Description:
Low-confidence stretches: none
Radius of gyration: 15 Å
Number of helices: 5
Helix content: 40-55%
Order of helices and strands: HHHHH
Oligomer: single chain
Distance between the termini: 47 Å
Amino acid sequence: MGELKDFYHRYLTGELDLSENFGKTWSKEDDDILYDMIDLAYTCRQIADELKRHPTSVAIRLVKYFDDETLHKLLAEDMYDVPVRELVDWR
């Protein structure tokens, strides 16, 4: 129970480092930017920075877009700095 209490404390005091768009719904514009950045060989981390989201959020969105659960393994944290289009079947 202490961990949950610590989480709430960090969340309420601003000590928890959440992305600006944490928990927000992806817009059509966000998706368009995502696809353009994949096309331009950006990494998951670069896309996340641009969209003000966590790289994990971008990875989850990519799994949904490509409808491929195996991408979870490819888009692990150690692959956030590899251009996304090298990890997926991109056009």
